Amino acid sequence: MKTNRLEVMIDAPISSVFEFTLDPKYRKSWIPNLGEETVDSSVIGLGTKYQNDVGTYLVTDYEKNVFMELSSTKSSYICSYSFREHEKQTKITYFEYMEDGSELDSPILESSFTTLKELIETNN
Question: What is the pTM of this model?
């Protein structure tokens, strides 16, 4: 697989979905192979570094409650999260690919976003 695109609708306000989805203390609860994750700043934004068991990722594009892109510091891997409000729900579109056109080693599974949906809707 060269690209992976997933979408999920979550019954929660966009600000809650955005914050939960990108908060390093919650990401390991819905992305199974991530392990512990840290960021190098107290406020996530352009230039923030995420570090986890898989690697180090730099926030290369960011608009709060709208979009975030992460780029690997060691490979050509890029992933992005897009957030849109739709009839009092939040639609997340996730996209990942290798900038050099190679195959994705471990694309994120749809089940991860099902887990994310359940976690947010249960806690909201």
Answer: 0.93
